[in-house]
Design a protein that fits this description.
single chain; 28% helix; eight-stranded antiparallel beta sheet; alpha+beta; 34 strands
Length: 693
Amino acid sequence: MASYETKDIRNIALMGHGSEGKTTLMEALLFAAGVTDRQGKVDDGTTTTDFDPEEIKRHISISAAIAPIDWKQKMLNVIDVPGYFDFIGEMMGPLRVVETAAILVSAVSGVAVGTEKAWKYATDNKVGKMFIVNQMDRDHADFLKTVTQLRDLYGTSVVPILLPIGNGLDFKGVVNVLDNKAYLGTDKTMKEIPVPADMADQIAHALDEITEASAASDDELMMKFLEGETLTHEEILEGFKAGMFSSQICPVIPCSAVTGVGVANLLDVMADFLPSPKRAVYQGIDPKTNQKIERACKNDQPFSAFVYKTIADPFVGKLSLFKVMSGVLTPSIAIYNSTIEKADKPAGIYVLRGKKQIPTQQMSAGDLGALAKLQFTNTGDTLCEQTNQIVYPKITFPEPCISKAIFATKQGEEDKVFSGLARLQEEDPSIKVEKNAETGETLLSGQGELHLDVVRNKLATKFGAKADLQDPRIPYRETIKKTVKVQGRHKKQSGGHGQFGDVWIEFSPIGDTNVTFEFEDAVVGGVVPRNFIPSVEKGLREHIVKGVLAGYPMVGLHAKLYDGSYHPVDSSEMAFKTAARIAYKKGCMEASPTLLEPIMHVKVFVPDEYMGDIMGDMNKRRGRIMGMNQVDGQQKLEAEAPLAEMFKYATDLRSMTQARGSFHMNFERYEEVPAAVAQKIIESAKHEEEEEE
């Protein structure tokens, strides 16, 4: 595939709310540009960028996928980014390597939560933005109403550069406000027509908005504008391009991905006005000195690249998707991974179009491509020349908000499941897999229940490893509330040497459940020989891992050995360990044992209008509201709630707030379980124990 100069490259992330037509628009763009000879359909599973079996089955995008488009001697690298919030991790990589976020909005439903999130994430990543008002062919489509909504939310930087000729079924073409030209039909039948006379006022108003926005992007133009001088067409164009590069202008374009009207005009805007990477300067550090250094996105700089995504395929092998941040990449360059300080050798350089790999021999600064079969490289790593090293900042992925215990469906396939999970983690760093040392379960954590279900299905389809998901066990604790003195006596005679151990132990609560166990030797007069006292402590330590109520670990327990007796022949270490166990079970049952549950500190961030619902829901979860305050235009609610009530909170919060809410949760302390709840836990534990027997 031909190599493009940096000035002719446009890197674009196609973003927005789920199921609003991003993948369909991608198909329309490819078809309009002649890249494909027929427009694929999501429902038929024939689209270029939704090629994973899970995407075809569910009719939604799950992974970010790229499709380069050659248009007007420009290379448009368009990345189709999933809109569903469970796959928000797929947004993070593309936003690190594009210059523009093209945010899709429905002409019927207007701004959705996904629109707001796309704008926020693009702004956080200092990426330019444009709005594409899609579905203009639908009933009740209203372009002007949508533009008004966008301007109310995001200010006067939002300006329509194309205006629709008609709405709904009457949407037949567009007017280019900057060129004052009108076009009718789709890319295949499109023709220029005279500008409709009845649109003159609308066009003039839109041009005024563009002129003002263009002037605001340049000090000289602003002075001229404020002094009442008329800006020339060339000055408006220059100001518009400058505003696009500095993210001060956000153009709006109407189109219909289904009918194709406006799609070719959208490609024109992308090629003519979206910023190239040529003026970009990327910040990194020198790994040898840890000093900040910069690389300009130019071919005459030393080679460096950033890996923004990994595709792990058991048949094709590993593909590392990257952006050339500086310099030129050719097969002759020895690639060094400066993040992990290892040389890595690819099997080839490719341009990806969906799942299709197109070999190439050269990639200029700013271009996006893929390297095959890099052994050590993962998402977020920096590649460069060993003699000119730089390390770019890693990608920050969202923290998981839901966890499930994952098990191999068939016994003996554990290794298959967990090796598959390791490969999927390379592909999707927003999932986490870790073993809970207390419960022994392996926890799979992600962004939502759909996310975890997709991971489970990918294990089966990609790696032939079937797994089951279920709610994790709660790591309850047990403790005692009063002091008791008990005897533990073990005596057994069965011919020859017998077994004899006798101890008196005082069990008392420490008062701090962060301290698991304290042992005190208070024996006087040799009633328990010194060599057997460590056996008593060992016997207790071995058995406190299983409490007396429901088998959960005992904490906050002080044991004082103060009396006992022994037999000169029959006493042994094992006999005294057994005596300690007897004393432990008897003593803890008499010392008012109680169950403890983990209490989490929860921070919830929601818009004001949802606070009532959130507080009511938190009370239902046995939560305690600790405080509220305003943070970045949202309400921040702090609460403490039992972990047992929070497993499905991510799903419920999304539902209550239309996905506008978010939360963070971390362990705070252990607290006594209410009696009614404790009884159910104890009964459940006994039932499980009976089933195992």
